[in-house]
Amino acid sequence: MSNFSNIGFHITSEQELYKLAENIYGIGKIEEAHHGKYIVYSDSSGAELWMQVDKNNSLIGMNPHYNGYSKRLVCLTKIIQRPDSILDGAFHCWSNPIEINNPDSGEYPFVFDLPNAKTIGEIKFPYNFEIQLSAFAQKITLYSSEDEFNSKQTSDVKFATQSFIPMGLFKPEGESTEPPEALGMFTGIIKEFDIKVNSFTRNHFYWFLVNTLGGEIDIVADPILIIDKPKLNGVIQGQFWLSGKLYYQPYITKENNKGFFKKLFS
């Protein structure tokens, strides 16, 4: 199982990854970027693949994303570079700030990776943005109600039905993770859910729209992870890789060095 399988792409080897890249190269949309370009396949299910191609037209990576419905406010504080690829990237941010461009007014910090990191222009940090955030399940547990969730918490540490732990920022010993990872452990209330069909592979996957501490999140999960039947207003808890997009893309004009924004999706 991988992040790809959470949106219906079951990849078990490097050969299968390259074969998938070959298949989407001709049908994907080109997104120009710093240091290269992305070839983007957008599936009707919401599943996305962002293939990375450098200036020599060589494949250097590919990331999944889910283009969902969640919308939440964050205060971006810095860019995080990834060592694996020059077209990878992430943002450190604070969730749900109550003041303009003030991260200290947020509820908690976390990091999310971006499939289109190198299409983004200059940002003067800190800065508030609305983002769409997708969580790719690694471990997941479902509860039929808040009462069931509360009754099954037997350890000394008990979680609220809406909670978020930015596990990608710290090691188990309490030391900071460098560079920080786009990982979170959270609990939330299920607002919507569906079984999606990836039209490219015909494989199924689960989608959830969840309310958690800090706002909404789209969750996608390989059916192998779903043991119990989901229920509306039930509780979902798990560990996830976080991938996000800005709702409005910042660019900087050369003439006056002032930013303007392009809406990426609605």
Give the SSE order as H and E letters: HEEEEEEEEHEEEEEEE
Q: In angstroms, what is the radius of gyration?
A: 19 Å
Largest sheet: 5 strands, mixed, barrel
Strand order of the main beta sheet, please? 8-12-11-10-13
- Helix amount, in percent? under 10%
Anisotropy-based shape: globular
Strand tally, please?
A: 15
Query: Helix count?
Result: 2
Task: Identify low-pLDDT runs.
Answer: 252-266
Chain-averaged pLDDT: 91
Structural class: mainly beta
Determine the N-to-C terminus distance: 31 Å
Please describe what this structure looks like.
With 266 residues, the protein is mainly beta. 7% of the residues lie in helices and 45% in strands. The protein has two helices and 15 strands. The radius of gyration is 19 Å and the shape is globular. It starts with 13 loop residues before the first helix and ends with a strand.
Quick structural gist:
The chain is mostly beta strands.
List the helices and strands and how they pair.
Layout: H1 14-25, E1 29-33, E2 36-42, E3 47-54, E4 59-66, E5 72-80, E6 90-95, E7 109-113, E8 127-143, H2 146-151, E9 163-165, E10 183-197, E11 204-212, E12 215-221, E13 235-246, E14 248-252, E15 259-263
Parallel strand pairs: 8-12
Antiparallel strand pairs: 1-2, 2-3, 3-4, 5-6, 5-8, 6-7, 8-13, 9-10, 10-11, 10-13, 11-12, 14-15
